[in-house]
Amino acid sequence: MSDSTIEVEVDHHGEHESTGIEHRKLGMWVFLSSEFLFFGALISNYLLYGGRDFDSVVPRDIYDIPFTSFSSFVLLMSSLTMVLSHDALARDDQHQARTWLFATAALGTVFLGGQVFEFTEFIEVYGMTLTTNPASSSFYLLTGFHGVHVAIGVLMLFSLFGISLRRGRLSERQGLNLELVGLYWHFVDIIWIVIFTLVYLLSAS
Amino acid sequence: MTATASRPAATIFRRPAATTGFWSWITTVDHKKIGVMYGYTAFTFFLFGGIEALLIRVQLAGPNGDFLTAAEYNALFTTHAVTMVFLFVMPAAAAFMNYLLPLMIGARDVAFPRMNALSFWIFLMGGLFLYSVIFFSDPQAPLGIADATGTTVAGNLDPSYNTLLGGLPDGGWFLYQPNAGPSYSPGLAIDFAALGLQILGVASLISSVNFIVTIFNMRAQGMRLLRMPVFVWMMLVVAFLLLFSLPIIAIALFMVTFDRSFGTSFFQAASGGDPILWQHLFWLFGHPEVYILILPAMGIVSEVIPVFSRKPLFGYAAIVFAGAGIGFLGFGVWAHHMFASGITPVAQAAFGLATMTIAIPTGIKIFNWLGTMWGGKLRFTTPMLFAVGFVSQFVIGGLSGVTHAIVPSDWQQTDTYWIVGHFHYVLFGGAIFGIFAGLYYWFPKITGRVMNETLGKLHFWIQFIGFNLTFAPMHWLGLQGMVRRTWRYAPEMNMGPWNLAATVGAFIIALAVLIFMVNWIWSRRKGQPSGLDPWDARTIEWTIPNPTPEYNFASNPVVHSLDDFWHLKYSEDDEGRPVRRPDADDLVVRLDHEGRNPTEPIHLPNPSYFPFIMSLGLPMIGYGVIWHTALWGKILIGLGALTTIGGLLGWGMEPLEEPHDDHGHDGHGEPAIAH
Fold it and tell me: Engineered SS bond to B18: which of B2, B24, B535, B649, CB 3.0-4.6 Å?
């Protein structure tokens, strides 16, 4: 049996891929396609309520566009560092890969910090809470769920960074993980571009 | 801290090794065992839903029924629907999918075996969570229509109820807002429904990703997409429908939970919310959901009818593309559930037209099945009877469905028993007949035996008669003006006789199901041994022994054509009639022998505790959210999150397969099956 190595290799986990795309990568793409609908529903929800008038303060009146532009820029740059990290790993430049990985996670953290600051300001200064009116509720629900997605991404990035630091390198398997986290990270970023455009820029008054 | 696959990980638990008994089921990642667990769990919920239906029918058997109070009645019709849709038909489809998908595409398991186990456990937890509301039912829950301050402004319904039944969710399966919001449904029932459905949605989302990757990536050599059995195709469409519709209902349910538990007013008209938004979001999910329920059954009958007609499926590509077309159009017709909700005339016209177009791919399928049977050598075995029953009953339900596309007609029918009659013809006459066809047809794959034909035919005919007696009269009742979800009707409305007929029919259905259960239990032990190929089947799941060996295929199959197994057994004469090859019987004997005696070591994924552990976290979070105002509620949310994340970490540290070399060595004695 041992001379039919190639057959056995293909056989024994039943793990060949008919599409040539690794299972987990294909799974991530499929999952992200579902996530688009998740945010689609949230964004539609905001678009319905965000422009309505209520007796109480609504998000469109209190947006700090310059500030949010800055944090959006930070998140966009984190996509760039993500690509740089992935690219460095493809060249097996472990040191650079790790550095850019850390940069990505750090930029993500800065973005989250910005969101915490924004929420705090809205609540403390303007008195706009989750329950103020449907517009504020849909704003917090949308940006909150996006923030949770960013936070999960940051956790995954820091875990990979930790593994890389402990082992001194990212193995091939971790390289795939990096790619998967990268896909997820770009997705979160793209969604933010849509949110920033539709929810902030176009609806600010 | 974290280990990789390359070294045997020091995990929290010793790797489970049991192959039989309780723990083997808890820790299994075998798609077949998971499928069987899905099946039994779904059937148990089917019995719950059936008992709820019988109670409803007893209440409605005659005018002025006083068997149930209004509160109990509301709870029962809601829970009946939720149970049948989310806890029976969907998981029953998942049962077939789990068991059969790898066998049909020639794989040893699904792409993500542990995620598959996770889906099942989350589904089970979601179902138990939903039903656990009976332990927490709130005796203060008011009835009738109350305003925001809780004062009853309309209705003087009997407020008493049996706590066991009346505490169940009672807002209708669609949880229309603001009726199911905090003001008008202040008890805990709707919280349990919203969070329970959320948990069930997670289970379905995970399995849809898993199945899509499995179908795209795990096909055997030669199993091109257009050589896949139609069942696999239909389940692929279902997986995409789930993938795109579940996130929408997830958001909508989050909004309900926020409204009810955290004081927002997304749908509460009194505070500026928009109830119509709920309807849009719900039906954006709810209509694709209808196809999620029916397409698996369409896949099953597309497997059964060709086998018992001894003909290839007529228009294979047409039926595949029609299925995909139904899935596609299914996302563009949701507002036909809302013609009476005050949407604009343009929207009404557009959604009415879109709804009518769904009849085209559906009609194509009907003709495909008829064309398959036309001129075929028909064998009316039990699976075939159920399949033909499906086609005939589904046509009735489909035709009454098209009437809803005509807006003025729909205004008359909506919220009457006409609708109830219609959707039971598609969901019971369709989906459930299809599921029974599949159960009889693939029973040998699970047990190695054939179900008793006499009892099977008895089951079919009794169910067929009972079904029509129950649901056909609902059409007349609806046209007569009997309102849906009505608890009582007055004697002078002259609705008693048909309602009595429906109630008698419901008990006849119950008798049929009882016969099925007797047959199942009896046949498992005493049924006739099936051999490899009891039905003279066409597809490759029948090229391996019955019951299916743990490793499925002893050697990887290579597929040369659609209906591959058939072509191994049959050639054609000049006029295209099938002629059995002289060596076909030897082939079957040889396949059976080879299937039982793999010649090389086969490595299967190892069992794992972590899917089960992860699933435990979700109901904990659910209870925590319901009682989030209490300290222990907050603690429970934390514990639930820790359980799930801890399970995930353990999962990540544990390799899918324990390291092994290829000389038959296996550190845990299992499940490498060598020689």
Answer: B24
Residue of B nearest to A22 (CA): B217
Judged by DSSP in three states, B565 sits in: helix
* Distance between CA atoms of residues A171 and B638, nearest Å: 33
CA distance B546 to B592: 8
Residue A90: half-sphere exposure toward Cβ, Cα within 13 Å: 7
Q: What are phi and psi of B152, to 5 degrees?
A: -70, 125
Q: Are A158 and A105 in contact (CB under 8 A)?
A: yes
Burial A119-151 (b: 16+ CB within 10 A, else e): beebeeebebbbbbbbbbbbbbbbbebbbebbb
Q: Which of residues 86-115 of B touch A (CB under 8 A)?
A: 107-109, 111-112
Asked whether residue A124 carries a pLDDT value surpassing 50, the answer given is yes
Is A173 within 8 Å of B5 when comparing Cβ atoms?
A: yes
User: A174 contacts in B (CB within 8 Å)?
Assistant: 4
Which residues, 6 or more positions from B104, have their beta carbon under 8 angstroms from its beta carbon? B228, B229, B231, B232, B539, B540, B541
Distance separating alpha carbons of residues B92 and B45, to the nearest angstrom: 10
User: What is the distance between the alpha carbons of residues B611 and B110, in angstroms, rounded to a whole number?
Assistant: 15
**Residues paired with B120 in a beta bridge:** none
Helices then strands, counting H and E runs in chain A, come out as: 7, 0
Element (H, E) at B571: strand B570-572
Q: Which of A26, A166, A173 sits opposite B216 (nearest CB)?
A: A26
Helix axis angle for B189-217 and B113-131, nearest 10°, is 160
Q: Look up the ipTM and state it.
A: 0.91
- The residue to which tokens 């000389």 are assigned: B663
Contact: A13, B555; criterion CB under 8 Å: no
Is the model's pLDDT at B114 over the cut of 70? yes
DSSP letters of B303-323? HHHHHHHTSPPTTHHHHHHHH
CA-wise closest residue to B43 among B93, B81, B79, B78: B93
- Alpha carbon A22 to its chain's center: 21
Q: How is B125-182 classified by DSSP, letter by letter?
A: HHHHHHHGGGGS--TT---SEE-TTS-EEE--------HHHHTS--STTTT-TTTTST
Q: Is the dihedral of CA B100, B105, B110, B116 positive or negative?
A: negative
d(CA A190, CA A194): 7
Question: Which pTM does this prediction carry?
Answer: 0.92
Give, for B580, the enclosing helix (H) or strand (E).
strand B578-580
DSSP B433-498: HHHHHHHHHHHHHHHSEEPPHHHHHHHHHHHHHHHHHHHHHHHHHHHHTPBTT-S---GGG--HHH
Nearest CA in chain B to A28: B209
Q: Which residues pair with B256 in a beta bridge?
A: none
Residues 34-73 of chain A with CB under 8 A from chain B are 34-35, 37-38, 40-42, 45, 48-49, 52, 54
What is the per-residue pLDDT across B342-394, written as a single tens digit (0 to 9) for each?
A: 899 999 999 999 999 999 999 999 999 999 999 999 999 999 999 999 999 99
Is B468 in contact with B414 (CB distance < 8 Å)?
Answer: no
CA B26 to chain A, closest CA, distance in angstroms equals 23
Question: Could you tell me which CATH number the domain at A23-201 has?
Answer: 1.20.120.80
What is the C-alpha to C-alpha distance for residues B409 and B425, in angstroms, rounded to an integer?
Answer: 19
Would you tell me which residues 103-132 of chain A have a C-beta closer than 8 angstroms to some C-beta of chain B? 130-131
In this structure, of A17-21, A158-162, B412-416, B659-663, the range with the lowest mean pLDDT score is: B659-663
The answer to whether residue A165 neighbours chain B at the CB level (below 8 Å) is no
Selecting from B109, B209, B272 the residue whose C-beta is nearest the C-beta of A31 gives B209
Going from N- to C-terminal start, the domains of chain A cover 23-201
